[in-house]
Write a structure and sequence with these properties.
The complex is a heterodimer of chains A (414) and B (232). Chain A has 414 residues and is an alpha/beta fold. Chain A has a domain of 214 residues: Spore Coat Polysaccharide Biosynthesis Protein SpsA, Chain A (Alpha-Beta Complex). Chain A has 12 helices and 8 strands. An 8-stranded mixed β-sheet of chain A has the order 3-2-1-4-7-6-8-5, with helices on both faces. Chain A is globular. The N and C termini of chain A lie far apart (48 Å). With 232 residues, chain B is α+β, with helices and mostly antiparallel strands. Chain B has 2 domains: 97 residues; 104 residues, Glutaredoxin, CATH 3.40.30.10. Chain B has 7 helices and 4 strands. A 4-stranded mixed β-sheet of chain B has the order 2-1-3-4, sandwiched between helices. The radius of gyration of chain B is 24 Å and the shape is elongated. The chains are: A alpha/beta (414), B alpha+beta (232).
Chain lengths: 414, 232
């Protein structure tokens, strides 16, 4: 007889495969629309853009960030840069001040109040029709802004365009794993963009029409994930968000498990709590694929990962218990077990084939993400780091985020 | 400004059909392999059946054969492999009608093997080293699990020792007769029969070892590379 646990397991697996198939079909439907431009491009018109760089204790990285903005392939008189020090306790303010000599750079200093307050200070001063943000730990590619702006030029209904975020300077396994994850995210974001389902407009160089903030109001604290909340708010108000896969922004990634854990805890906590805040738009036809696909599949991934983790712990517990019983009964058993050499003992249950297929689809989506970034088909063995590290550590931040939500605790920024 | 909030329900349906197709295909492939495995089990059983039949025939022709030859060659050595594969099949393929049928057949083969070895030992004057082991799968029997481990370990040490294991809950008249003969009750499982003595409850390796050594004068064989598991 099928147990309840098996029904849950089958249902979660079915839905997980459904999500991957949805992405694949979206990809094949739109593959001709996904282009990677190699050289510089030109626009008919160059609208004025303001890029806000909020910073808090970023003395080591802000210089590169600002330099990358100053080197953008975009007319200097059309680009304004706002550098905002959000009450840093290191030498960020000094680092910012040296850019005050540039005619298109404006600098601000304020009491620490969180990233959204720094962004809102910038929004209060903008005079351009387009505005974006660039996190002070990221570096914009020379062609990124012009490629993003080309989306606005071709479709006047687009209200925000997110870039492809590429993880760079990876030095260890943890960072290599994230590099792969960022590549997969490019694919997922692009697919979500194609169906109007983007749920986050990330800090590194998403460009908005100013009208978004004029109509919908400034950034909110939003559980430390203001870039997610603004996307939810836009979706709620039917504002179109796109993803420009060949606009690159390079970002460093957390180098240690603890830092990665804290970052992801914040993201997942933000996702769960923003979803709770916007629960009334879930499964409502008028909010489109965002409401019936994006957010439900995100919720599904939280459930699936938590369930799988529980199942893994349960199985591990059972295994250890049986080994303990074996030890108590016959002592240590060092005999070589050759069962695995006999193909009879290979698990041929349908779920093993489906799990294998799911893995293949995930690997394919990573390869497609890479292809969307640089136009090349490439398999990286870092995928193994990604699969291992994220499936082992991932459930911890997921469960902690759920736990914190239940206890209404808020995770620290860093 | 309007977002593309149109939902393409047809696409959702197509994705559903694709996903369902994947599941059905996986189920078909899985069934294909399960059938292959069942076929493999049947093949082993047929082989054992032929082995036993052949042994019985040889036994009838005993006058033309020396006892030494018989004891070295007749008894089917594949019962252990079959037990292991059946147990795996039961856990992974589920207790289907086919698996249940194979399990009954296996029990029958064990009884035949047991009877034959008894006959041979009587004729050749050599005491057959075997243990009858009764367990249950009808309820959670943790002691049966431990007893199975102890017996596996013992058999690794003494390959000459044959362990015939029977599921108390199996619906097979031959097994029921064995239960009757040795007066095995389901409340006293696991139960062992060593040298006609019935022992109930869990008995550790040391205890069993001294018992079989004493009864059958077995020689310990240094561990072989492979271990086999006996049904719990």
């Amino acid at each position: 007889m099928t147990s309840f646990s098996e029904i849950v397991f089958y249902s979660l697996t079915f839905l997980s495969v459904y999500v991957q198939v949805f992405f694949l079909i979206t990809f094949f439907e739109n593959r001709k629309k996904i282009v990677v431009r190699n050289g510089p491009i030109e626009l008919k018109d160059y609208p004025k853009v303001t890029v806000i760089v909020p910073s808090w204790n970023e003395e080591k990285t802000i210089d590169k960030t600002v330099q990358s903005l100053l080197s953008l392939n975009y007319p200097k008189d059309k680009l304004k840069i706002f550098l905002i020090d959000d009450g840093s306790t290191d030498k960020t303010w000094e680092a910012i001040q040296k850019f005050s000599e540039f005619s298109n750079v404006k600098i601000f200093h304020k009491e620490n109040g969180g990233k959204h307050t720094a962004l809102n200070l910038g929004l209060e001063h903008i005079e351009t029709d387009f505005v974006g943000c660039l996190d002070a730990d990221s570096v914009a590619d020379k062609e990124s802004l012009i490629r993003i702006m080309s989306y606005f030029e071709k479709d006047s209904s687009i209200m925000a365009v997110a870039p492809s975020i590429v993880a760079v300077n990876s030095k260890n396994m943890i960072q290599h794993a994230q590099e792969i994850e960022y590549e997969m995210s490019v694919y997922i974001k692009k697919m979500l963009g194609l169906v109007g389902g983007i749920h986050v407009t990330p800090g590194p160089l998403t460009i908005f029409r100013k009208k978004v903030f004029d109509d919908l109001g400034p950034y909110r604290h939003a559980h430390n994930t203001e870039d997610m909340e603004i996307a939810y708010r836009m979706q709620k108000n039917h504002y179109k968000i796109e993803q420009c896969n060949d606009a690159y922004v390079y970002t460093g990634t957390p180098p240690t498990v603890i830092k990665l854990y804290k970052q992801r805890l914040r993201w997942i906590y933000g996702f769960i709590n923003n979803t709770i805040d916007y629960r009334n738009i879930l499964f409502r036809k008028k909010y489109g694929n965002f409401s019936v696909f994006t957010v439900p599949s995100g919720v599904l991934s939280v459930f699936a990962a938590s369930y799988l983790f529980g199942k893994m712990i349960y199985n591990l517990g059972n295994f250890l218990l049986s080994k303990f019983i074996e030890y108590k009964t016959i002592g240590f058993n060092f005999n070589f077990n050759s069962d695995f050499l006999d193909p009879f003992f290979i698990n041929t249950q349908s779920l093993s084939f489906i799990s294998m297929l799911l893995f293949v689809m995930i690997i394919f989506s990573i390869i497609l993400g890479k292809k969307m970034i640089d136009g090349k088909w490439k398999f990286s063995f870092n995928i193994i780091y990604f699969l291992v590290i994220f499936s082992v550590i991932g459930p911890f931040w997921l469960l902690k985020a759920v736990y914190n939500t239940l206890l209404s605790r808020k995770p620290a920024w860093r | 400004m309007e977002q593309n909030h149109h939902i393409d329900w047809k696409k959702y349906l197509i994705v559903f059909l694709f996903t369902a197709g994947i599941f059905l295909s996986a189920s078909y492939i899985s069934n294909y392999f399960s059938n292959k495995k069942v076929d493999q089990l049947k093949l082993i059983q047929d082989k054992i059946s032929i082995d036993i039949l052949s042994s019985e025939t040889q036994f009838s022709l005993l006058s033309e054969l020396s006892c030494k030859n018989i004891s070295d060659s007749v008894l089917s050595g594949e019962l252990g492999e079959l037990a292991k594969k059946l147990e795996w099949g039961q856990e992974n393929l589920g207790m289907t009608d086919t698996v249940l049928y194979l399990k009954k057949y296996y029990s029958l083969l064990q009884i035949k093997d047991y009877l034959l070895s008894k006959k041979i030992s009587a004729r050749c004057g050599k005491k057959a080293a075997f243990i009858l082991y009764f367990y249950t799968t009808a309820e959670n029997c943790s002691e049966c699990e431990r007893e199975g481990l102890a017996l596996s370990s013992l058999r690794d040490k003494y390959p000459e020792l044959r362990v015939y294991s029977f599921d108390y809950s199996i619906d097979l008249s031959a097994v029921k007769s064995m239960l009757k003969i040795y007066k095995i009750e389901d409340t006293k499982l696991p139960a062992l029969v060593i040298d006609e003595e019935v022992m109930t409850g869990f008995h550790g390796v040391e205890e069993l070892e001294s018992k079989v050594k004493e009864s059958f004068k077995l020689q310990e064989v240094k561990p072989e590379k492979e271990t086999t598991t006996i049904k719990k």
